[in-house]
Amino acid sequence: DIQMTQSPSSLSASVGDRITITCRASQSISTSLNWYQQKPGKAPKFLILTASSLQSGVPSRFSGSGSGTDFTLTISSLQPEDFATYYCQQSYSTPLTFGGGTKVEIK
Amino acid sequence: EVQLLESGGGLVQPGGSLRISCAASGFTFSKFAMNWVRQAPGKGLEWVSGISGSGGNTYYADSVKGRFTISRDNSRNTLFLQMNSLRVEDTAVYYCSKMTGSGSPTLYGMDVWGQGTTVTVSS
Fold it and tell me: How many Å separate Cα B46 from the centre of its chain?
């Protein structure tokens, strides 16, 4: 199985900050990496497909990059509605696996 | 509006069985692969099972293989998860999710999610 490791597990930031979340795969997964946002008590929301393809309706302040084993999710200017937990997920092979999550909190 | 609505969760004793459902609307159900993803209390997301759009191919996490069965009824736009030999560690919110394509769950993302149904396994 492919293990997905996210870092940091949590971070504190202020509105307007630029933040970066890292996701590392245990083996090369090309660009088969998706990102999701989840708010407390809600279902996850799909943000980015295949490492860098922003989904319709997702603000342009979100961006993704990477290939192989190392990936990043960047929020260029953090907004109040962005405080949430973010998950990466590999779609290279089954079983599909998620990272452990990164909780973004208000400083 | 594209929508997924799970139902059937509840309290069950260890070793028991439960079938949960996910009713889909707003899209051509048979054209998309579907998944079940669960989230234990205070924990992260765990993929449980996936099924192709036709229903001809199914996929499982090792943690549920041999105990859970995913299926779909494309005439009723409904996804199912039959859960047998339930364990305390199966306690979670179970989400159904729609994939962005029809075949294997690989290469696609999960673009629509239901609100989840809670399964509690406890004596």
Answer: 11
pLDDT in tens, A30-50: 999 999 999 999 999 999 999
- A100, closest residue in chain B (CA to CA): B44
* Residue of chain A minimizing CA distance to B51: A94
Sign of the four-CA dihedral B110, B114, B118, B121: negative
- Which token pair is B40? 């234990």
How far is Cα A91 from Cα A73, in angstroms, rounded to an integer? 16
Q: How far apart are the C-alpha atoms of A58 and B64, rounded to whole Å?
A: 33
- Say if the Cβ atoms of A89 and B47 lie within 8 Å: yes
The answer to whether the Cβ–Cβ distance between B35 and A93 falls below 8 Å is: no
* Residue A36 near residue A87 (C-beta atoms within 8 A): yes
Q: Kindly state the percentage of chain B with pLDDT values over 90.
A: 94
Strands B117-121 and B10-12: parallel
| pLDDT value, residue A91 | 96
Q: Do A96 and B111 touch (CB under 8 A)?
A: no
